[in-house]
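Quick question: what would this complex look like in 3D?
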Amino acid sequence: MSVLELDDVTYAYGEQTVVEDVSMDVEPGEFLGLVGPNGSGKTTLLKLMLGLLRPDRGSVTLFGRPAHEFADGTRVGYVSQGATGGTAGMPVTVREVVTMGRYPHVGLGRFGKRDTDRVDEALATVGVADLAGRRFSTLSGGQQQRVVIARALAADAELLALDEPTVGVDAESREAFYDLLRELNRDGLTVLLVEHDIGVVTAFASRVACINRRLFFHGDALDFSESDALRRAYGANQQLLDHHHH
Ligand code: ADP
């Protein structure tokens, strides 16, 4: 079964259609890079995929269910743009943020050693164990993103979606961050990465989806490098403009 299935998905903000007739799937264990020019609908498509927006036409199926009905917060981790996980202003420690990922598993039960171990493991995996006692809001952007990922790992998420996670992160930390994503993906986590840096995507993703409102390419990352999809997608706005002038 696919993790995600999009079938002829169309979405508009008012009169402005920003996603049009997009069909694609995401298979378990894949690393999908979502690329396209600024304002091409990447963030909107990601939100549609995660059920945070509901398509005007078409359907999105997440783990076999309509995405907008998807309520199981444990299976999907989402690192939104400039992500601080909604905890930016809260006086919580790094450990507390990651522990939140565990709550859905505990339910009304007791938070046990197994849960504490899972939190420790998640902190270590993303390399922030030494920051566990720090206030989350005092961390750098890059560190905060790692903590948000640790929270998803503590939740045993199967799908990790990230929206331009390294904006504002220095080059060295960026490299380390993508290495981490690659490792998590190798361990079986399905990764969805919205990224403007095409080089990063072709280096780390197994498949690429290139959009500019419509889907210009969906397939193997190597084939993408050799295709003219990028040029066509980035030229599409210009063509639309030309069209209006004639
Ligand atoms: P990308 O992530 O590729 O930069 P977005 O999905 O953020 O693209 O935006 C696609 C288009 O939709 C842009 O023209 C943007 O201005 C518009 N848009 C995004 N969010 C909203 C919103 N909440 N209301 C109205 N228009 C929006």
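Answer marked as accepted. Residues 6 and 24 are 5 Å apart (CA to CA).
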